[in-house]
Design brief:
Number of domains: 2
Largest sheet: 2 strands, antiparallel
Radius of gyration: 21 Å
Shape: flat
Strand order of the largest sheet: 1-2
Distance between the termini: 36 Å
Oligomer: single chain
Helix content: 55-70%
Bound molecules: zinc ion
Order of helices and strands: HHHHHHHEEHHH
């Protein structure tokens, strides 16, 4: 596309008039005088902040499950024998350790996204979520995005989907747990690891966990995907394609 047609498309508002998502007739935020977004409407900008994609929603726990089960057993079986997996588990454990103390939710107000994401990780540690679970989630999300033909294959979508899966984990089974303080008294603590998890906090959490898992994903993704297909069959969208 030449510079002339770009200029024409941008018009004198310095952006497009209509949202660039196919089928969306909403005005862009800039055209509507709502903000800086020059190519997307408010609805699609908000979707991106929440899900990591303008147009692809967050995967459900059910969609992720077969990938998570396959990745978990794959990682568990090789936790000691595979050096990439071993390293990732050690690095995640260290990351959780270094996340520091937890903080009560009311103190989170006004804190930077970086600090909040560290606290969220510390809470997952206190909730005794094992490094194995983190590594398996990264691998499961990566495998699902890889296999699903309708997925949005961007780094950002993956990062947010990893954080979302962790979020679900934190707000699900481990909502309330007991901890012992220094005097040995037991206290019930509620886990709101990602209170109203904002976009920036989610992304920082996702990135922090992704990073120690890069090598494992690189080396083992194909095998994990093969294991998942063997146990549960191909992604439903691929099955539909094969039938049609
Ligand atoms: Zn739109």
């Amino acid at each position: 596309m030449g510079s002339r047609s770009i200029k024409k498309r941008l018009g004198n508002t310095g952006g497009a008039l209509r949202c660039s998502i196919p089928g969306c007739r909403n005005p862009t935020m800039r055209a509507a005088g709502l903000g800086l977004a020059a190519f997307h409407c408010r609805k699609h900008i908000e979707a991106k902040a929440r899900h990591g994609s303008h147009w692809h929603g967050t995967y459900s726990a059910a969609e992720l499950k077969p990938y998570l089960v396959a990745a978990t057993s794959y990682v568990r079986l090789r936790a000691e024998s595979d050096r990439f997996i071993k390293r990732a588990l050690t690095d995640v454990a260290l990351l959780l350790e270094e996340a520091g103390p937890t903080e009560i939710a009311t103190r989170l107000k006004g804190m930077s996204a970086a600090k909040r994401s560290r606290i969220a990780l510390a809470r997952l540690r206190v909730a005794r979520i094992k490094p194995e679970r983190f590594v398996a989630i990264v691998l499961a999300v990566t495998a699902l995005i890889e296999e699903d033909p309708g997925s949005h294959r961007t780094k950002e979508f993956r990062t947010v989907q990893i954080a979302k899966a962790l979020h679900r984990l934190a707000s699900g089974t481990h909502k309330v747990w007991e901890i012992e303080d220094h005097d040995g008294r037991k206290r019930r603590t509620e886990l709101h690891a990602f209170p109203r998890s904002s976009g920036p906090v989610l992304r920082l959490i996702g990135k922090a966990i992704e990073q120690p898992c890069e090598w494992v994903a690189d080396k083992h993704l194909a095998a994990i995907l093969a294991l998942k297909v063997k146990r549960y069959g191909p992604h439903p969208a691929l099955r539909a394609l094969n039938r049609g």
